[in-house]
């Protein structure tokens, strides 16, 4: 379901399909509209219509958008390609720049927002936040961030780890978040027990996406639409025929929508 919040800012559209949850946000001077739904295979056919629906709810057109953000990864291969294909199509057609969003930083921001809600105020997280997301195949996507002066700063870049390698690298982390904490609960138990804060589940990826998109805009992280590429930390040799056809269809839909 879409939600609306009041927040004066530039008009920014954002899409993320890097996990099993598809998230979209639209921030405008009149407010912020959020949408979340099941991702996976469903996301490829829903990104364009849901983005256009958010614009319609806000009484806006794609031409009114200042930039289009996308979750660049790391994450699911098909989901990352779908988001990039759609954002490139929309941005090319409308002549708009793009904003790449670190998909693991998105998890850190969601955890920070959860903490603010828990303490009942505008608490700004202090210390290192480690994100650990299930990467399937018995592996974990992980990265570390620090909250400084109202924005997340990258400390350890996203990388792929086995549970054992991540435990050895971690030591005793102060704060943890992400789906791997549940999926690899037994292997990561010592770190989870030692952490001061732990968030194994997300609350609103769409709200976190809106917040990070605003941060990226403020920092001037704009790219040309041609540079809207996914971030991979695990290699895959080639797309399947079905994936190529699906992505071609998504780009055509996005171009038509523009």
Write the layout of secondary structure elements.
Layout: E1 3-5, E2 12-16, E3 21-28, E4 31-38, H1 41-57, E5 67-73, H2 77-94, E6 98-102, H3 103-119, E7 128-134, E8 140-148, E9 151-161, H4 163-170, E10 175-177, H5 180-183, H6 185-194, E11 197-199, H7 205-218, H8 241-257
Parallel strand pairs: 2-5, 5-6, 7-10, 10-11
Antiparallel strand pairs: 1-4, 2-3, 3-4, 7-8, 8-9
Describe the structure.
- There is one protein chain.
- The protein has 258 residues and is α/β, with parallel strands linked by helices.
- The protein folds into 2 domains: 154 residues, ATPase, nucleotide binding domain (Nucleotidyltransferase, domain 5), CATH 3.30.420.40; 96 residues, 2-Layer Sandwich (Nucleotidyltransferase, domain 5), CATH 3.30.420.40.
- The chain is 41% helix and 27% strand.
- The protein has 8 helices and 11 strands.
- The protein has a 6-stranded mixed β-sheet with strand order 1-4-3-2-5-6, sandwiched between helices. Strands 9-8-7-10-11 form a 5-stranded mixed β-sheet.
- Strand 7 and strand 8 form a beta hairpin.
- Helix 1 packs parallel to helix 8 and helix 4 runs parallel beside helix 6.
- It starts with a strand and ends with a helix.
- The N terminus is likely disordered.
Q: Return the string of H and E elements.
A: EEEEHEHEHEEEHEHHEHH
**What is the radius of gyration?**
18 Å
Number of domains: 2
Contiguous low-pLDDT stretches (5 residues minimum) are: 1-8, 236-244
Helical stretch tally: 8
Q: What's the total count of β strands?
A: 11
Structural class of the helices, strands and pairings? alpha/beta
Assign the CATH class of the largest domain.
Alpha Beta
Report the sheet with the most strands, covering strand number, pairing sense and barrel closure.
6 strands, mixed
CATH architecture of the largest domain: 2-Layer Sandwich
CATH topology of the largest domain: Nucleotidyltransferase, domain 5
What sort of overall outline do the alpha carbons produce when their principal axes are compared? globular
The amount of helix comes to 40-55%
Spatial sequence of strands, sheet with the most strands: 1-4-3-2-5-6
Look at the structure and give the mean pLDDT.
Answer: 86
Q: Strand content of the residues, in percent?
A: 25-35%
Q: Tell me the name of the CATH homologous superfamily of the largest domain.
A: ATPase, nucleotide binding domain
| Span of the ends, CA to CA | 24 Å
């Amino acid at each position: 379901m879409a939600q609306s919040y009041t927040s004066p800012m530039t008009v920014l559209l954002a899409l993320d399909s890097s996990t099993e949850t598809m998230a979209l946000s639209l921030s405008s001077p009149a407010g912020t509209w959020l949408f979340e739904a099941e991702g996976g295979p469903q996301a490829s056919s829903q990104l364009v219509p849901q983005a256009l629906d958010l614009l319609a709810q806000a009484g806006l057109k794609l031409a009114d958008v200042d930039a289009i953000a996308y979750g660049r990864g790391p994450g699911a291969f098909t989901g990352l390609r779908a988001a990039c294909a759609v954002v490139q199509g929309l941005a090319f057609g409308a002549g708009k720049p793009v904003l790449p969003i670190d998909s693991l930083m998105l998890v850190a921001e969601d955890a920070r927002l959860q903490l603010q809600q828990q303490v009942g105020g505008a608490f700004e997280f202090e210390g290192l936040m480690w994100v650990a997301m299930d990467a399937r195949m018995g592996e974990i996507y992980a990265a570390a961030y620090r909250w400084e002066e109202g924005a997340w700063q990258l400390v350890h870049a996203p990388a792929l780890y086995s549970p054992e390698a991540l435990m050895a690298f971690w030591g005793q982390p102060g704060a943890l978040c992400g789906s791997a904490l549940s999926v690899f609960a037994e292997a990561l138990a010592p770190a989870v027990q030692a952490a001061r804060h732990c968030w194994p589940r997300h609350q609103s990826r769409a709200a976190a996406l809106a917040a990070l998109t605003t941060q990226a805009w403020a920092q001037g992280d704009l790219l040309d639409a041609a540079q809207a590429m996914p971030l991979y930390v695990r290699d895959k040799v080639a797309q399947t025929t079905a994936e190529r056809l699906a992505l071609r269809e998504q780009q055509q839909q996005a171009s038509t929508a523009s």
